[in-house]
């Protein structure tokens, strides 16, 4: 079931909307006739991708990663062999962060920290086997800004893997597929272990 349809996540979604409406960033939603952006994907996802904040496309449609970055992320998912039912996507900040010039900017640490309790509630409700942090803002939310591309750490009882945000690669005219090697190996190792466990039960 999609995250925004999930009864299990309904309370978290209500809390998120209520919390977001009290933050100064909510003015951006009003001024642009946009949306507070909840997650998308499966409520039983084994892999949770976490980005930083919505862009203009996401703000307009009310879903994360639906613009150019989303298209590249979907390409990564396909390259990694992840099934549609096995992943979900969310951001550490659910509101579009805009500069005084009305341009997209990275969320501040204060903005990230404000929404962190709800980010953690989302994570705990989904309970993924692996969290993929997309970009430094997502890593900063968990105090992991020192992580390197392709690095995996156990943190807060979860396995976390770091990749550059798809937008970073788009700005540099790349697809970033070369950065997926370690994550692909990690996922393949997990699949192999499950396969061996299944065979051992015969």
Describe the overall structure.
With 202 residues, the protein is α/β, with parallel strands linked by helices. The protein has one domain (3-200): Uracil-DNA glycosylase-like domain (Uracil-DNA Glycosylase, subunit E, 3-Layer(aba) Sandwich). Helices cover 44% and strands 13% of the residues. The chain has 8 helices and 6 strands, in the order ααββααβαβαββαα. A hairpin with a 2-residue loop joins strand 5 (152-155) and strand 6 (158-163). The longest helix has 20 residues, at 181-200. The chain starts with 9 loop residues before the first helix and ends with a helix. 39% of the residues are buried.
Identify the CATH homologous superfamily: Uracil-DNA glycosylase-like domain
Work out the number of β strands: 6
Q: Which structural class should the secondary elements be placed in?
A: alpha/beta
Oligomer: single chain
Number of separate domains: 1
Number of helices: 8
Arrangement of strands in the largest sheet:
1-3-2-4-6-5
Distance between the termini: 31 Å
Order of helices and strands: HHEEHHEHEHEEHH
Average residue-wise pLDDT: 93
Radius of gyration: 17 Å
Please state roughly what percent of the residues sit in beta strands, choosing from under 5%, 5-15%, 15-25%, 25-35%, 35-45% or over 45%.
Answer: 5-15%
CATH class: Alpha Beta
- Tell me, briefly, the overall form: globular
Which fold name is given in CATH as the topology?
Uracil-DNA Glycosylase, subunit E
Q: How many strands, what sense, and barrel or not for the largest sheet?
A: 6 strands, mixed
């Amino acid at each position: 079931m999609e995250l925004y349809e999930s009864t299990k996540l309904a309370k978290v979604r209500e809390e998120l909307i209520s919390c977001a409406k009290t933050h100064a960033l909510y003015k951006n939603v009003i001024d642009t006739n946009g949306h507070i952006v909840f997650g998308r994907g499966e409520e039983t996802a084994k892999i949770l991708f976490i980005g930083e904040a919505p862009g203009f496309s996401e703000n307009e449609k009310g879903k994360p990663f639906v613009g150019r970055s989303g298209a590249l992320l979907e390409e990564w998912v396909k390259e990694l062999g992840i099934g549609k039912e096995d992943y979900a996507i969310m951001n550490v900040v659910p509101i579009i962060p805009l500069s005084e010039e009305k341009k997209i900017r990275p969320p501040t640490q204060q903005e990230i920290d404000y929404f962190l309790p709800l980010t953690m509630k989302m994570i705990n409700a989904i309970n993924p086997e692996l969290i993929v942090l997309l970009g430094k803002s997502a890593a900063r939310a968990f105090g992991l800004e020192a992580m390197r591309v392709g690095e995996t750490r156990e943190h807060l009882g979860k396995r976390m893997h770091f990749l550059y945000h798809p937008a970073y690669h788009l700005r540099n005219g790349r697809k970033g597929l070369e950065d997926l090697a370690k994550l692909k190996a990690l996922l393949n190792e997990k699949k192999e272990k499950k396969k061996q466990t299944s065979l051992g039960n015969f």
